[in-house]
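Give me the 3D structure for glycerol kinase.
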Amino acid sequence: MADAPKAVLGPLVGAVDQGTSSTRFLVFNPQTAELLCHHQVEIAQEFPKEGWVEQDPKAILQSVYECIEKACEKLGQQSIDISNIKAIGVTNQRETTIVWDKFTGEPLYNAVVWLDLRTQSTVENLSKSISVSNNFVRNKTGLPISTYFSAVKLHWLIENVRKVQKAIEDGRAIFGTVDSWLIWCMTGGINGGVHCTDVSNASRTMLFNIHSLQWDEELCDFFGIPMTILPRIRSSSEIYGLVKSGVLEGVPISGCLGDQSAALVGQLCLQDGQAKSTYGTGCFLLCNTGQKCVNSEHGLLTTVAYQLGRQEPVYYALEGSVAIAGAVVSWIKNNLQIIQSSSEIEKLAEVAGTSYGCYFVPAFSGLYAPYWDPSARGIICGLTQFTNKFHIAFAALEAVCFQTREILDAMNSDCGIPLTHLQVDGGMTANKVFMQLQADILCIPVMKPFMPETTALGVAMAAGAAEGVSVWSLDPKYLSSVQMEKFEPQINVEESEGRYATWKKAVLKSMGWVLTQSPEGRDPSIFSSLTLGFYVVSSMVILIGARYM
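Predicted structure for glycerol kinase (549 residues):
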């Protein structure tokens, strides 16, 4: 029996979406922005010590190849010829740090994931060496010195891993975030692989000057990073190289965006003042600020959003970053084991209908925006004998909503014009209880696209629009408006504000929890924190006084 004829659809664009918990490959039709098929593979995280988070770079790469192969098989089952795929984009978890040998192609250590906290003492020491009145790191990068960003992770690898030290001495080591690793491997690896990154990923390393758009010598010297190991910086939309093996051999890789920048593009937030929030492992709210850098006075980051072509201008964004969003659901599933699958948390929260005064601050990796406190740790407070798993599930979802409220408030203060609605995407948005909670806590409508894969869509758009590919127009008049589901606030503002105020009290109790050893080698003591020391002394005075009253 003859094979069925292949469907004629015109050019298609593929997107690699490599996230913290999974890898996916998705195929889109540029004419309609329709998702035709996808395949997903879960990615394991390793926790070798408390606060350490690692992944295997080779497992990440293998998951990409597996997803591409399986997605192409699914296209074949739909009688769609894979030769229609004219370009591939790569979007990725940002900041995660990989060092590998350019002659053997072997990673020199596991990928140090963006959530990793091993560099907390390094961050504290580096921060002390910078003048508050002249914070050149913040001025050049738009970022605070934090465990979050690549520079301190790379600094740790150079200081602590002999294989990395030796490879740098021998001129064999090269560094990259996940995008760089994937593009280098997919374009040939040791046989001519292209070592590059785009401006959005480079801006998350803390080595990139967001004004000159180049690696910065002063920053590299400060963090002790040799500039010879850094990738070449490219725009977010151009042909970097061709895939050298597998079912899509010969297809150009022509789009590269950090995952949050990709979601901004995919949500069509391409104008100054447009914003989106993505709920994945963490939560990230970005507001497009156009071609100008806006410095935050309220704990947000100034970052590069995208550059959609070599001759196109760079667009910037203000970003509020929350470390733990979907990860709190995973923690409830894997650690507390009160649900069997992540989707079950919606049913538990729906049964509860309230947290019954229980508040959850999931500061598992410290607190990111707007506090930037790596010493914070997770707490659940307000517990009574009545509290049960349903209330804790509700409190976990509410915690993500409160964290989003905090960064939205900071965003509104920095921008001066409050957002009238919030566009959202990411895995957690499938949870309708969560979406309604988010609208209630923000006191504004929440808008969710019916096509949820906006991160992959954004990098597919960048890849398809690249010069030499040109199968996807980014002209606004050709871009279809995103169809949205709308969630309106259903509680009064007073109730929302009351719950938010109590949440803020809980946050304060989570802060300053971990005290790292001082540089002089003294054992950590509670009196190394001035605030905490004052609190303890005051409490002692009160107790002694009470005894004699």
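The CA atoms of residues 105 and 216 lie 27 Å apart. Let me know if you want a second pass.
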